[in-house]
Amino acid sequence: MTFVSLTGDAMSNTATTTTHAALQQWVTDMTALCNPAAVEWCDGSQTEWERLTSLLVEKGTFTRLNAETRPNCFLARSTTSDVARVEDRTYICSATKAGAGPTNHWADPAEMRVTLNEKFRGCMTGRTMYVIPFCMGPLDSPLAKIGVEISDSAYVVTNMRIMCHMGAHVLKRLEDEAAGAITNKRDGFGTFIPCLHSVGAPLAPGQADTSWPCNDDKYIVHFPETREIMSYGSGYGGNALLGKKCLALRIASNIARDNQWMAEHMLIVGVHAPDGTTNYLSVAFPSACGKTNLAMLIPPKAYLDAGWKTSIIGDDIAWLWPHEDGKLHAINPETGYFGVAPGTAYDTNPLAMESIKANAIFTNVGLTDDGDVWWEGMTKTPPAHLIDWTGQDWTPDCGRSAAHANARFTAPAVQCPTTDPNWQNPDGVPIDAIVFGGRRATTMPLIFQAMDWNHGVYVGATMGSEMTAAAAGTLGKVRRDPMAMLPFCGYNVGDYFGHWLEMSKYVTKLPQIFHVNWFRKSAEGKFLWPGFGQNMRVLEWIVKRCNGQIGANDTQVGASPSFDDFNTAGLDGFTAETFAELMALDSSEWQAELAGQQEFFTSLGDHLPAELAHQRELLAARMG
Question: Which end of the chain, N or C, is less packed with Cβ atoms under 10 Å?
Fold first, then answer.
């Protein structure tokens, strides 16, 4: 593996900290560039966790929560300028602009390296440089990706410990691979993905630190060809936890394309039927479409009593590859949940609430007077008083939100009560169905099945959600989010569609593809479908279709259930007429949909696969 150094600076070798020569040289070079006061190699131990969380409490970055109600949990508050992913400062520095495509921000890689060289020069002065060996995916998985993140943020270290395999055992695996001590070769055997991160806030001698250091000038940069990630200026979430969106999606999507597998923004859920069969579904939803709720779905009581249950492999990212058994197999490359807190409650997602009872980090939520956390939607009655996410006194009538809209919790995945026994199986789980979905008040029916793989790729490529902002010209407008990968595809999205089509050549038992829409509304503006746990009824139809246990009606968009074959038992007031309204295909709505799809396809230019244009023409003909 060849690394392109950020800087021409050289530093004489210091005492060797790893036997991996390339890693040692990279750390040496970055130490010379960033000029930290100290360098620490993270081992991922409990002792290290306790030391760093205590340090963060001492600095004021963390507040230790009530040990009785929320053991081993901490609250962090960021600055108001560093609260979310910054898509406008996220770059794909591919060799050519066409390689990044029209949906990504591109910058010339050579020019960006010059810019970043100056940003990172001396950026860690007065701070500790943490060297964080980590692995996305089970270490023995053929898709496992080892990375090393250099960061000057202890907040990053503690979150990375939850979100992925991290520490001394990962470093030893990398060293053993390079030394030839291990023969079971993963993709990328013996190499690592370098991930450089700094909050961009050097400290002069005697200068007091802030509780959340960051820089308003932010860069989140990916170099696909050399498999490098560099992030400057932000300490928050996906901007700083570089194993997550940066590696597991943007860089991994490039690696996947080159090696005939798929890196996808998908949850993985297991559906276990009363007859003992299990089907695994990989599901892609844009934001605000119930992704985490579906991953942690609890079936209605009647289903539980009948012997149905669900399990979770992952709630956010799936890596899928052609397995020797002929199916696509999938792993979750993460070991934790980085979930949106507002709206999460025992009423909406009890399993998420159970998952965050201990060993969790909460960022930008409210702090109650008894040392617990609170956010909007958590309870029906808000506390009479708390400290809000900006550190101010808060009461229900103060006119401000207690938690930021993008407030987060970081919690170990193993704490979810329905964690699947195979969630860390290096061999992954076989995927029987891929499900796409968006938030659509009209047009899209509750459920339909694609006609074949190519039609299913077209369904995923054109999926989207109606925008809910009330700004002029945006309300109701469909924002295309193909495969829910719009912010995360690390190369030209037209070529990405081509890769999806190409995958059919490598998989003999392709998953069935479906599209769902929980958000269809009546003419009066009321939701036609109850959603949440009742979505189990849709999952039942999907798995029965996968297993050849139930028929379907052919429609212009695909195969749909009949009312008699769809389980509506116990749904009060849900009639055949309601079902018909929920499944209706309105010609005028679909003409508008086809026009919107064409507008999106046109934006992709000659990178749009001809097959998808053909699929659109076929649908237009069926719609008349």
Answer: C
DSSP string, 426-455: TT-EEEEEEEEE---SSSS-SEEE-SSHHH
Distance of CA 218 to the CA centre of its chain: 21
pLDDT in tens, 218-245: 999 999 999 999 999 999 999 999 999 9
Cα separation, 410 vs 138, in Å, equals 19
Cα dihedral 484, 488, 489, 493 in deg (nearest 10): 60
pTM check: above 0.90: yes
- Known active-site residue 289: yes
| DSSP assignments along 220-248, one per residue | EEEETTTTEEEEES--SHHHH-TIIIIII
| CA distance to 45, 50, 437, 504, 558, per residue, from 456 (Å) | 45, 48, 12, 11, 9
- pLDDT at residue 466, rounded to an integer: 87
Q: Is the dihedral of CA 562, 566, 568, 569 positive or negative?
A: positive
pLDDT in tens, 348-365: 999 999 999 999 999 999
List 164, 195, 289, 546, catalytic entry: 289
| The Cα angle at residue 93 between residues 87 and 95, in degrees rounded to 5 | 150
Distances (CA, A) of 540 to 46, 447, 467: 42, 12, 29
For residue range 133-182, list pLDDT tens digits in order.
999 999 999 999 999 999 999 999 999 999 999 999 999 999 999 999 99
